[in-house]
Amino acid sequence: MSGATGTGTTMREAFVATAGHLLDEDPRVAVVLAAISADVFADAARRHPDRVIDVGIREQLLVGVAGGMALTGMRPIAHTYAPFLVERPFEQVKLDLGHQGVGAVLVSVGASYDWAAGGRTHHAPGDVALLDTLPGWTVHVPGHPDEVVDLLRRAARTDDRVYLRLTNDGNARAHPVGAGFQVLRTGRRAVVVAVGPVLDRVLAATARLDVTVLYASTVRPFDAVGLRAAVLAADRADVVLVEPYLAGTSTHAVAEALADVPHRVRALGVRRDVELRGYGEPADHDAAHGLDVAGIAARIHAFTRA
Questions:
Q1: Fewer CB within 10 Å, N- or C-terminus of the chain?
Q2: Any coiled-coil ranges, and where (predicted)?
Q3: Which of 165, 199, 216 is the last residue of a domain?
């Protein structure tokens, strides 16, 4: 799936266009870059040279500058590849934003392995799990470029700490964004939570199964109320998480939501037990991690029959 709208817009293009509009509309908004995407922000930089800042290949400085801007009352949007935005400058994310009690919008591209040929340095399946070790983060994982527009605009209006995770992958159509799960299909045998760009694959994989399918473009805060309602309406308290990043990232959130309900959880995502060293294409990684339609279908089918 291309992650494109009918006009061919990608999530990254939707982000760049929306950020440009926000720069024009709101004098608080600034965009901080670390070389990545500097070319596509060139027009915005000419219009707003004091609020589009390229620090070069210095990712720790990228986050530090965003923290400093936030301390002055600005609303910084920091952007680069996921491993360079969350993993490499994690100390600055923890201290310059979290410990100082200020917010920023971190917008990543690359997802888990969008640029498969870039190798392990450009893969980041653990980014959401890593941010999960810090309090107070809102995490959006859109499944369509139109969702990116809405989520970024909402984030820019707040002073919260927000992570917006973009990918080349995506669903055929957008769904309304919000903090809660959307019920896209109801069933009795299990509740399947599909996060962001894996939704279409989950719907195809469960087409003949008697399961409820919930969709989430926002995973933090986790919609415990929505999950409980769906589980309690089913015949079995079985939950399948299908996340496009590290398998089991949201298992603890499911456990907390269902602490008083005996339940089972099957977590699907990027495998924890292997590191793929053959670059290949993103589809090859999906298949190896069981995140293609066939892999998702086989594992959900086995789980619901157990």
A1: C
A2: none
A3: 165
Whether residue 169 contacts residue 282, with contact meaning beta carbons closer than 8 Å, is answered with yes
C-alpha dist (Å) from residue 303 to 110, 143, 265: 31, 25, 9
- Contact indicator for 155, 147 with CB cutoff of 8 Å: no
For residues 117 and 123, give the distance between their C-alpha atoms in angstroms, rounded to a whole number.
Answer: 10
pLDDT at 179 over 90: no
Greatest alpha-carbon pair distance for the chain in Å reads 60
Asked if residue 185 has pLDDT above 60, the reply is yes
Residues 223, 110: Cα–Cα separation, whole Å: 26
- Asked if the structure places residue 46 within a domain, the reply is yes
Q: What is the mean pLDDT of residues 76-98?
A: 98
Are the CB atoms for 148 and 92 separated by under 8 Å? Answer: no
Give me the CATH number covering residue 101.
3.40.50.970
Q: Are 264 and 190 in contact, with CB atoms under 8 Å apart?
A: no
Helix (H) or strand (E) holding 108: strand 105-109
CA 279/CA 272 separation, integer angstroms = 17
